[in-house]
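Dear support,

Our group has been running a series of protein-ligand predictions, and this particular one with zinc ion is the one our PI (initials K.S.) wants archived with full inputs and outputs. We had some confusion internally about which version of the output was final, so please treat the block below as the authoritative record. The input we submitted was:
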Amino acid sequence: MVRDADRTRRRRRPKMTRRSPVKWLLKKRENPFGTIPWKEMYLMLPEEGVRATFPNTESCEARLASVRWPQGVQCLSCEMQDVSYIENRALYQCRACRRQFSVTAGTEAHRSRLDLRMWFIAAEEIITAYAEETGHHRLVGQSMAHRYGISYSATHRLKTTLTNSLSQPGGGLIGECVCFCALPVLRKPDLSPEEWDRMLSAAMYENRGARRTPHRRPILIPLEEPDQSLSQTDDLAKVGHALDH
Ligand SMILES: [Zn+2]
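Confirmed final output from the archive:
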């Protein structure tokens, strides 16, 4: 009796009609030249993958700092370059105005509880999905959340913030951090966009054998069951390590 009632309730539940941001963005990018920037970014990703290039948070922070301040760290308030680094708090401090700031302050990853390395890895995954046009099944929120070991809402935020930032000309700050290789193909000035798109696809296809794309990597599952007694920050720190395996 109870079971029947449950079933009816389940059947009556309205169908989810929420628009997925990925499908929406793919639709927006259906114009013939929409995939070109993604393919260019894909070909500029490090050959050995983001995970191997940036093995820990410190390497990601160093990379972000060098992209943000190519002339040396600059204070966010007074723009002075007389800045010291407080190692145990991972903060910069301006010697002139005493302002303390982190490397992510004022960026997309500002105040994010996720590890900066996770942002880099997710950027690689998003670029690959859009370049290969497989975003509709690669960037599904639930499966991403499972792979990263974070909540669905955190995944959704990460994905939308990163997609918007990577869509900016030049790939945004995180795009610049992970896409640093020279393009393996040269664009002649008289080349039409369609031909350039074909050339990029051919280069991607050739490279694919050499590069292990994220979807060929084993699916990443956190090794331990999350401990309920731990705070969320501790969980995320643990997940950062789980991503290595
Ligand atoms: Zn200052």
